[in-house]
Amino acid sequence: MVHLKRVAVPALAVVLSVLSGSGARAADIRTERMAALGRLWADAKYFHPWLAYQDVDWDQALVAALPKAASAKSDAEYAGAVSSMLEALHDSATRVVPLGAEGRGRPGVRPLSETTGDGILVIALNPDTISQEAQDSGARLREASARIGAARAVVFDLRGQGEWTNRNSSTMGLLFIAAGLNNGLGAGGLRVPGQRSRMHSGLASPWEGGSVYFHSAFLVNDGAILESGPSTSLRPVVFLVDASSGLPPIAPALQAAGRARLVAEGGASDASLVELHRIELPGGVTAQLRVTELIYEDGTTGLVPDLIVPSRDRDDAGDQPLQAALALARNPGSAAPPARPKAPPYATPRREKAYAETEYPAWEYRLLAGFRIWAVFQYFFAYKDLMGEDWNRLLVESVPKLEKAVDATEYAEAVAEMVAHVHDSHASVSGSRALLELFGTEPPPVRTRIIEGQPVVTGLLDGDAAAQAGNAIGDVVLKVDGEDASERLSRLGKYIAASTPQSLENNLMRRWLNGARGTEVRLTIRDGRGQIREVRLARAANANLPWRGGDVVQVLPGNVGYADLDRLTPESVGPMFEKLKDTRAIIFDMRGYPQGTGWLIAPRLTERKHVPAARFRRLLALAPEGLAGDISTVGAGWDFVQYLPESDEWKYTRPTVMLIDERAMSQAEHAGLFFEAANGTRFVGSSTAGADGDVARFTVPGGITIGFSGHDVRHIDGRQLQRVGLLPDIEVKPTVAGIRAGRDEVLERALEYLGVRGAKLAKVGEAR
Fold first, then answer.
1. How confident is the model over 659-679, as a mean pLDDT?
2. What average pLDDT does the structure give for the chain?
3. In whole angstroms, what is the distance from residue 523 CA to residue 445 CA?
4. Of 618, 663, 659, nearest to 636 (Cα)?
5. Helices (H) and strands (E) in the chain, counts
6. How far is CA 79 from its chain centroid?
7. CATH (residue range 113-334)
8. How far is residue 336's CA from residue 78's CA, in Å, rounded to a whole number?
């Protein structure tokens, strides 16, 4: 028994290891399938033109397909799940390409061309007729084209093409051009329908408070005009098709002009006439996605047959559909012209459902959240190229976390963690009670910053309360509620998106001590004497107090002006310049967030006109992932330059300095760009947050709203700002010793740069 145990245990371990590995692979395949389904759903959401105006619950189509994709035991079952989602579009051009389709036609089809007894020329184009005579099919097709002039009418039998033309939608059009068929059929100018697609200039999100600059629109490509010689005579033309048929562009042009008829056996598809993207999914499954629709001169759309006849049995020698086509060729007026549907001239934006009824949605809707996040950052995030991570892989990794979240808190954490990977300080996650509870809403009466690599108390929101608790400026925080400070910061940091390390530190410092109102926070600190002790502070402070006290505008020693842009209001800009007009320099304190004053101040720092100040780039989302023919869209954008506003007021032409650090972000950094462009303002301090660009917003299930940077903003010379920040011309950071001594070392260094040394500064620093 002992001997058997010694042999069996390793063997059992091997078996379990194999089974475990197999299970892991199965789980990976399942996750990959669901992630790919979500990406396809997103591609259709933003680029299938019908979803811009048709009443299709596309969210529900995904939600209904997810359980099928999750339980699929084979590639074929997964393909069925994908098909079930795409079927909600009722679009024959958008579908799953059949697995292993070879694209062969029906056996026993007629020769490439033949003429009926009453002079009707029938030209059959399918893989059988072309491949049967592969060596001379081109010559035979040209011969058939030459016989059009003598024919009473022409019937093009385009049935039985299978996947032949779907592999390359231009096949039929090229055949008609190469064989000269277009010249034989046209007379004068024929107008081919245009192609209409969706384009997105940033993410339009008016309801969520996103930037008004972002919008979506229809993009219309003009249809071609097909010319032919004046000697071309007119004769009846009929195109006989089935659902697999590829049509040449001249077919809808002739039909729209009333010079051709379309007979459909069972049904017809415009797949060969529009732009399609082939999107590869796991297991060799391929989806075909429409990204354009036909648009005619009269504002109609679609491909509507003149006559629809039932599909015949393969063994039906009579070929009733062909007989119907021949009858229509003999008497074109026997069927009323079809009425194509009107296409709306523009889409009416619809608000995305936030599914806010519950903060813990069902698992399908939790995955929907992940797919929405992937889609928005994939196509609309201005700085996707700076993320430094594989966004598709991040989706795959996020799917199990979203699916397995056991409650609202774990769900909100999974959402926040996914968003954190975009590394954008504008990427906020709000509206989640669970996430608010994770961080807490109420701060204690102290502010902290990372100084010399450690969290230090740098400001008092309630000086009396802090003093009574034994807390003072300069205290180093070692633990929070018994948790090591570094461990707490690491734990919370993975839920916060930040462009730079300094921005992450700033975001954490603003939230890491928070908790529920009325609770106490227990801090283990090291004070200025090196003693380690514990203090308790009630969480009930006002966190919205400005960073600094003292006069907003003042004259410092050495006749240097000072303005705190964190507190300066727009209406105070004029009086500020009047007060400081005789100073020999001005220091603008931008260690915080301004109140829209950059647009008013910068024009008064230069006498030049038409001053370029910042470079912008907005993503233009024109196409989804996947191949369109043999190309795949990499990206597109609109690049433009922003200029300083003009001002008729007198100009301040003396030197200016801007104080910066990690608290300066977005509008603060943009003000820095303006000042830099206006007069070469010098930056003193440390690097800013590195997040600029108008914010777009969207929602995900659970009523969660997510924001992000929608514009790529750069210095006017093209230098990168995002994930870098404004870089100081003179770098200086506070020290713990300086904080404890009540000094503003950054301001002191700015004064030194301006030639003022040893000045005693009063009520300028952030201590309260």
1. 98
2. 91
3. 12
4. 618
5. 21, 32
6. 26
7. 3.90.226
8. 43
| β-strand partners of 265 | 309
Q: What is the mean pLDDT of residues 124-153?
A: 80
Residues found in the chain: 768
Write the pLDDT tens digit of every residue in 604-660.
999 999 999 999 999 999 999 888 888 899 889 999 999 999 999 999 999 999 999
- Closest-CA residue to 447 (of 109, 768, 56, 86): 768
The two structure tokens encoding residue 172: 């039929």
Tokens of 498: 């930040």
Residue 591 β-bridge partners: none
Residue 429 backbone class (left: φ over 0; alpha: ψ -120 to 50; beta: rest)? beta
The CA distance from 468 to 668, in Å, is 35
Q: Distance between terminal CA atoms of the chain?
A: 78
Output helix, strand, coil percentages for the chain, rounded to the nearest 5: 35, 20, 45
Write out pLDDT tens, residues 690-749.
999 999 999 999 999 999 999 999 999 999 999 999 999 999 999 999 999 999 999 999
Phi, psi of 711 (to 5 degrees): -120, 140
CA atoms within 13 A on the CB side of 385: 10
For residue 149, give both structure tokens. 């002039």
Element (H, E) at 696: strand 695-700
For residue 682, what are its two tokens?
A: 């010098």
* Three-state helix/strand/coil letters over 586-624: EEEECCCCCCCCHHHHHHHHCCCCCCEEEEEEEEEECCC
In the chain, where the domains are located: 113-334, 442-538
pLDDT band at 750 (very low <50, low <70, confident <90, very high): very high
Residue 343 has pLDDT above 90, yes or no: yes
Exposed/middle/buried for residue 571 (C-beta within 10 Å: 0-12, 13-18, 19+): exposed
- CATH number (3.30.310.50, 3.40.190.10, 2.30.42.10, 3.40.640.10) of 442-538 reads 2.30.42.10
Say what the pLDDT of residue 357 is.
96
Torsion angle (degrees, nearest 10) of CA 687, 688, 692, 695: 150
Beta bridge partners of 612: 643
Q: How far is CA 492 from each of CA 304, 438, 563, 724, rounded to the nearest angstrom? A: 58, 9, 35, 23
Condensed to tens digits (0 to 9), the pLDDT of residues 605-616 reads 999 999 999 999
Residue 530 tokens read as 């090196």
CA 141 – CA 90 distance, rounded (Å): 35
The pTM for the full model equals 0.92
Nearest to 422 by CA among 445, 390, 460, 448: 390
Which position has the token pair 């190229």?
385
- Half-sphere exposure (Cβ direction) of 33: Cα atoms closer than 13 Å: 27
| pLDDT of residue 7 exceeding 50 | no
**Cα 379 from Cα 371, distance rounded (Å):** 12
